[in-house]
Amino acid sequence: MKTxxxxxxxxxxxxxxxxxxxxxxxxxxxxxKRFKWNPEIRYTDPGFTIAELLAVKKPSxxxxxxxxxxxxxxxxxxxxxxxxxIKQFPQHTHIFxxxxxxxxxxxFPENCWVGVSATDYPSFSEACNQxxxxxxxxxxxxxxxxxxxxxxxxxxxxxWFHRVRIDWVIIGQQTPVKQATMPKxxxxxxxxxxxxxxxxxxxxxxxxxxxxxxxxQDNVYAKLLRxxxxxxxxxxxxx
Length: 239
Known about the structure:
Elements (H helix, E strand, L loop, with lengths): L9 E3 L2 E2 L10 H9 L6 E2 L2 H9 L6 E4 L11 H12 L5 E6 L13 E6 L3 H11 L6 E6 L10 H10 L4 E4 L13 H13 L4 E3 L4 H6 L7 H4 L14
Parallel strand pairs: 1-4, 4-5, 5-6, 6-7, 7-8, 8-9
Antiparallel strand pairs: 2-3
Helix pairs in contact: 5-6
């Protein structure tokens, strides 16, 4: 399915239903309840998944599991089938993002990018620990929603980036965007500065625009968070 998620082109969901992670900020759970979708957790027929991929004619970035935690602990055969399908489509980049990094397989197909969500410093350090042994073309951290980074600065974050091979960083805020859940600009800047120091490409999601614009009086963060043309930094790994 074509998507509005800025860092990928399509989404595909081999497991459907109401995600048991039950994160309070989950947009997918809101959609399931709003549209009264079937909450039963079930595995999609592989033939249907293959048909979806065959419809994508150009090499694309495909995000697997946009509405469901794929590493919750489902039957192992579901993941084996998923990897088998992925290997049939080497022209695409297949992206996984999890909140359960302790359940990640050690080896992924060669055309996979694997990320872990982090909302604060403890979950960030745990994400790095769990990603360390994983073998994937790209390993990344998604700070979305960024909820808390109080007390932790550039040096702490850089130390983790330096210790673990992290190839990409995504930063975003909770949606819908509200003042009450808006991260501090200093948190965003600390992550970006640490990633830049480590040579890691950075993708700032569009939902940060209001935060950065609001805090833009003296251009303190201009060179750090924006390109020369004034756009948010939205970089991808060079693979």
